[in-house]
Amino acid sequence: MCFLAGPSIEKIVSLHPHRKPPNPTKAPVKNPTQVSVNPGQSMKPTLTTLVEKNYGFGLVETEFDMTLGMLGNAVKTQEVGCNDRFDMKINNQRFVGFPKTWKVRGGCTNYQILILFALKQGCDQHTAAAYQTLSNKIAVSFVMLQNYFGFLEREDKWADYADARDDPLREFAKLSFMVHPLIDMYDEVRKRGNIHKYQINFVELGFCDEAHALTRLSVVPKGRQEIDDIVRKMKPYHGILLLEDVWPTPDANPVVAKLLKHCSPDRSILDMSTASGIPVFEVFMIIRHLLQWTRAILIYPLCNTNVYTSATSPQPIDKMAEKFASQFGNTVHLSAGLAFFNPPATLGDFVRKTHVLYEQEVRAKLVVALLRHQMLMQLHQFYYIIKPYSNAVLPEPSDECPEEMRLMIEKSALPDEVKRLVTDICAAMLEHSPYAVVKKKLTIFVKVVPFMNGNHHLEDIKYQNNLDRAVIEDVFKSFELVIATFRRPDFVFE
Amino acid sequence: MVQRQKTLATFGAGPFATGDSTGGRFGHYTFDDAPKLLGILLAEFDNREGPIIKHSVPQGNDNVEATFSFTKGLIIPKPSLFRHSFSLSINALNCKVLMYPVGIDHNSYERGRFTFDMSFIVDMTSSAETMYEPIVQKCAEYLIELEIEYNFLTNKKYQPQVLEMMEKMFVDLSTRGNVIEVNLKDDRIVTLYFKLCPLYRGCEPPEIEYHMVPMFIREVELTDRLIEKMDVLSQKIIPRIDGINTVKEIATDLELDSSLVARCIRNLHFYECVSLVPMFLYYNTYVATERVHDFYKNQKEIDECLDFVKIQTVYAEDGSEIPMPTPIFQDVFRLYLSMMCGIEMSKWVEMTNPRSMGIDEHRLVQFGMHHQFLRKLSVYPLCKVPPGNNSLLKACNGKTSLDELALRHNVDPRQMSALLDESKKFDFVMQ
């Protein structure tokens, strides 16, 4: 909706899409008059029910159980409330916008423009804020255009002219400079969830309704805040999955195109930076941009040791099965892919199950597609340092643990309750392993103990401590008595 | 979120599932995210001055006045906007104003009309201001009745009572959301009922599956007097809710239509009298959820858990009590972590033998489900072949669980699973 206030009009002059109320209670009155009884004559107390004297735009019925005239009265903003976010709820329908007021150069009339969006019930604050921002951007672009072309005076006159016609919305749309771009923007947001365009090839307008854009791409929707959280937690060992072909705009930084060439699901941010020669920081910035514009999702780079299981996503499996059948044909069924990962299994097991190279490729692609639609989730191993089961068999070393190791354990961040047991484990290991090997394992273990509180997964521990997977797994195996492991998805993605 | 004291004797998941155990009357909650009520103002249209504030609470608060001057045009709007509810955010004052303007026409009023609006000003930081919306509307309805009947708002003799009522509303709604009594001068007492409701009360409660088990989440003593007050259907159904019988079993026992029982239980579920849980079966698979990490850090919950999961008193044949070991945290925590996809409960019990550690697996699962450390995995058969007109094949679309299919066809779930597996037409996904 577009509310316009100028010298000759103060009304909502455009409404798109214009849906009529489902059960119109009354037909529009051609020449309405006040239908209420004269209040002064009422003998019995009655509640005021008055149809306002309206004409033109004001008479148009809307799906919001109000006429445009009533809506216009309700959303008309005092000057003190202009140039600020506008958020109003009328009978459970939320309207958001950003009223803009300014004086035409050399004139004395205050113009007010408010692009209003009617949002679905229960939409979150971030969606509302996103549409308020869009409203502001549109209004600013109109103000800029006004400063160059001075079109608002004409709009004001045309609105005044249309107001006297039978179908004022249509009449105004025919003449107006504003209505068509607004309709285009609405359609683009509905269709793609985002806008990137230039008003008359001049003023740039960009906006993204993240949840809507992701839904359109059959991805579990996420709001702005969730995406921002993901961006904040992004690490160099993460990778990305492009949701659709991304074509950089003509004015985009040339490194974007370069990075996209080196982008694949089995590469981490660090790998992409190395392969493309773009500094890691710049890769981060581009990926942040891709995530915030819902062009990509963050994943762990595909590797054979990754463990996956079917996600509890709300994606309709029957519809997705059709989509997958059209993509993969009859070689492999979606359900077979999902069933394989129950119970959780590694990517290597799934892909190597067959030795035909072509099928391996298809299977890898299937996993990528399942990850893209978030029907699979990766499970990570998290660790806790905790005493063993009360009925566990504990080591009984014949010799005491050497002083050096005892001191290492004593000074470590290990909980006191397990220190004695770790000393015994080391002493028991020394019975069949050389001192240097045990010391090395203990050194690594003591180093990673602060990460074993259930907050860090194996990949993170590996990255933070610059360790090899096999080495760290060997260490954990040696001290398994005091370690509890837990497989769960990473909060960054789920 | 709504703060609810959880009872250990119940399961729960999701906003509808858990409830308090204080034994208070239904719907008795305390809130920690209810937006702060900043003020209430009663505005009127004065025939000489236009819109004015008649009374406001808390008195002498400049912000209430500022809010009024900001929204004057909407608090007392044009008559066509009467009896529509409005809420407007005012960023400059960091508040939201909830309004419901009303006009009453009568020849006793000057110019034949009395226009008023009792507006509520709430803090903008919480998005839960919708909790106040029904109260604003209800308050307006009460005031209309009081005005029509006693001229409560326009008669000068009642002005102290109006202010007193507003003050009471402000204090009570800010603290507990309660019933307010208004004493009219001539010893007549009018009772106004208000209640702040959690946000999810505005949503449709989920549909009830016939294989779910309803379970009371309040310690309600089902006395004859209480049962007598219920409708006929509830009188029959409520005594059968024992945490074991499924909706379908209750219906079969009572020779009632399952949909009727489901409807009654859905109602009880909506009012948070019961939660719905999957049946505890050794055939089921439970997995630990990420919430188990919160449990690891919460000493209070750990203490509650250790007390709850221990094997209850066991008596020997001669009547003597058999001493049971007291569970310890590391055992309980490791047991929770060991519940994972692919291990049925029966197999898990064999592997871990929780009873040797003094832990009752049934109670362990019950506690975990209630606190959502655990989740029951359901098996969903997926049909690999075109289903045609076969209803069973059509039902295997990833939305119908094996338990549900088994219940629909009155077959044991294991048998159903074996039959589907044998046909080679299905894949099985656990979710």
UniProtKB/TrEMBL annotation, chain A:
Residues 15-40 are annotated as: Disordered. The keyword Signal applies. Pfam families: HTH_NPRL3, NPR3. This is GATOR complex protein NPRL3. Residues 31-40 have a biased composition (Polar residues). One of its GO terms (cellular component) is GATOR1 complex. The keyword Signal applies. Keywords: Lysosome, Signal. Belongs to the NPR3 family. Residues 440-482 form the GATOR1 complex protein NPRL3 C-terminal HTH domain. GO terms for biological process: cellular response to amino acid starvation; negative regulation of TORC1 signaling; positive regulation of autophagy; TORC1 signaling. As a component of the GATOR1 complex functions as an inhibitor of the amino acid-sensing branch of the TORC1 pathway. It comes from the Eukaryota. It is found in: Lysosome.
TrEMBL record, chain B:
It holds the Pfam family NPR2. Coiled coil: none annotated. InterPro entries: NPR2-like. One of its GO terms (biological process) is negative regulation of TORC1 signaling. GO terms for molecular function: GTPase activator activity. GO terms for cellular component: GATOR1 complex; vacuolar membrane. Signal peptide: none annotated. Belongs to the NPR2 family. This is Uncharacterized protein.
